[in-house]
Design a protein that fits this description.
With 274 residues, the chain is α/β, with parallel strands linked by helices. It has one domain: Rossmann fold, CATH 3.40.50. Helix content is 28%, strand content 17%. Strand 10, helix 7 and strand 11 form a beta-alpha-beta unit. The longest helix has 16 residues. The two termini are 34 Å apart.
Length: 274
């Protein structure tokens, strides 16, 4: 796998993807053992996290094969037991099963909970449509008020998680949460995976991330012979506009400057304003 350069964002130390290993005491519970759950678990194990998969059937041959593929420190348990063990909890469960799972994981107070789900269904016209009034992440936060819910890793295929170079360029990952520190913590994980995190702000912006998923799902839901990969890329052009001319004094601070999280930048450095 190619190693992308990680460029420093405001005030944040950086490391190369895969080079900043997690502490021996840190563990991640990956709830869900499908394609996305398996990809997330494998990559997190590479970063040094102890991965425990949460499954309804943790002793099944399929789940045990996934554990072996993930590495020596990986294990599997029932979903609530896995969540109890994890310092971070990744919810990689499809809808509508997500509601039952997310309501029954036990006390998640203080834990970072990363929602990667796609809450969609097939509309009468054959195209995907959002099945919720708000977002999956907001509902999960409501069911688990003490958790620090973050929407991330939700706008690309599992194969991009498994191999970030597969897209041919550094893929940008939107991250949303009402908890700034949780956004920053997840952004570091994104960067260590060789992906590029961007701050989408509060958790209500998860609705927009999930709407982006609808674009991704169009050919899959319709069973088209061709598919597409849809993702963000950073752009510097518009950030070079200045309100007061071309001098540094003319720069305008972001509207939410005091709450804007400090994220690492992965890939090429920013283009200088000209």
């Amino acid at each position: 796998m190619k190693v992308a350069a990680v460029w420093l964002a405001v005030g944040l130390a950086f490391c190369l993807p895969g080079s900043c290993l997690a502490s021996d005491t840190e563990s991640v519970a990956v709830i869900g053992t499908g394609e996305m759950g398996g990809a997330m678990g494998a990559r997190l194990a590479e970063l040094g996290y102890r991965v425990v998969y949460g499954s309804r059937h943790p002793d099944s041959e399929r789940v045990q094969d996934l554990v072996r593929q993930t590495g020596e420190s990986a294990s599997a348990a029932l979903q609530s037991e896995a969540a109890k063990q994890g310092d971070i909890v990744v919810l990689a469960v499809p809808w509508p099963a997500m509601e039952t799972v997310a309501r029954n994981l036990g006390d998640l107070s203080g834990k970072i909970v990363i929602d990667v789900s796609m809450p969609f269904e097939q509309g009468d016209d054959g195209y995907p449509k959002h099945m919720l009034q708000t977002s999956s992440a907001e509902l999960i936060q409501g069911w688990n008020p003490g958790a620090r819910v973050v929407k991330a890793f939700a706008s690309m295929g599992a194969y991009i998680i498994a191999d970030p170079t597969a897209a041919g360029e550094t893929v940008t990952i939107p991250v949303a949460s009402d908890d700034r520190a949780a956004r920053e913590a997840v952004a570091k994980i994104v960067a260590r995976m060789g992906l590029d995190p961007v701050d989408f702000g509060p958790l209500r912006m998860a609705r927009q991330i999930e709407n982006l998923q609808m674009i991704y799902m169009i050919p899959l839901v319709q069973n088209r012979p061709e598919n597409w990969e849809f993702h963000f890329l950073r752009a510097d052009h518009f950030g070079c506009y200045r309100a007061g001319g071309d001098t540094a004094e003319g720069l305008v601070a972001p509207y939410d400057d005091e709450d804007l999280a400090a994220f690492p930048r992965v890939g090429r450095p920013p283009d200088p304003c000209r």
